């Protein structure tokens, strides 16, 4: 499977710190009370933004006929990079359990949305593509074990907040030309647009303490970026609409480094 190699490598890196960490943590008391925690996370992610969409009426030069056009999304995966800064307060929530609650600021590299277009009932007339960048601000929580007898400390995490999805760089190959009533012949295109919407994440993984103040982690995180869309570039008297996604989901392999103040 395509995820086995990076996951195996990540587990090897995490577990290789055991000898060093055991020496540092011997007879080291665990932190009690409220603590400030800064966590930096990064890793590769995968998305499948392949939604199909049918838009409104269209005049296609030189036929000048009224017909719907369809976007058929590719089912191929798009690989990207993601990163996050998590600023939290940590407190013991129960025997051998700790909780963290704070603000998370996250972002990503671009996701490519691509596929084929059907025009006037003719399939695959042109290929289309555009890109989406994502940033978000969220309230995030994490619940983890804190037992010195465990080799690693399992955790669960989740967040919800506002996502900002910037869609841009729409193009077709070959170019597609449109003729609207009373408007000159124009090449099909859409303007960039930033959409705000609800975004959330769910995660799970393990952490390993290197000292009283440093931890490394390895985990998986599922994210829903929320909605995104392009804007019309030309007058739209017939209400053609624009390419959009109701949701964009990513699956991330997440490496983290935490400093406990």
TrEMBL record:
InterPro entries documented for this protein: OMP/PagP_B-barrel (IPR011250)
Signal peptide: 1-21
Keywords: Signal
Origin superkingdom: Bacteria
Protein name (database record): Uncharacterized protein
Organism: Legionella quinlivanii
């Amino acid at each position: 499977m395509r995820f086995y190699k990076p996951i195996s490598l990540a587990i090897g890196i995490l577990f290789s710190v055991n000898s060093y960490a055991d020496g540092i943590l011997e007879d080291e008391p665990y932190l009690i009370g409220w603590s400030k925690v800064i966590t930096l996370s990064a890793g590769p992610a995968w998305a499948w933004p392949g939604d199909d969409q049918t838009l409104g009426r269209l005049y296609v030069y030189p036929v000048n006929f009224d017909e719907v056009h369809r976007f058929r999304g590719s089912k191929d995966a798009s690989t990207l990079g993601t990163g996050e800064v998590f600023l939290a307060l940590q407190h013991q929530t129960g025997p051998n359990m700790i909780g963290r609650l704070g603000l998370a600021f996250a972002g990503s590299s671009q996701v490519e949305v691509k596929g084929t277009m059907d025009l006037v009932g003719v399939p695959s007339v042109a290929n289309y593509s555009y890109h989406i960048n994502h940033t978000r601000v969220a309230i995030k929580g994490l619940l983890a074990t804190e037992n010195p007898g465990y080799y690693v400390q399992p955790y669960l995490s989740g967040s919800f907040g506002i996502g900002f999805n910037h869609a841009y760089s729409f193009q077709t190959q070959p170019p597609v030309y449109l003729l609207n009533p009373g408007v000159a012949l124009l090449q099909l295109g859409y303007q960039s647009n930033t959409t705000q919407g609800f975004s959330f994440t769910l995660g799970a993984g393990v952490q390993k303490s290197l000292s009283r103040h440093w931890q490394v982690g390895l985990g998986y995180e599922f994210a829903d970026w929320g909605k995104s869309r392009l804007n019309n570039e030309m007058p739209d008297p017939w209400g053609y609409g624009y390419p959009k996604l109701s949701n964009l989901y990513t699956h991330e392999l997440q490496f983290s480094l935490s400093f406990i103040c």
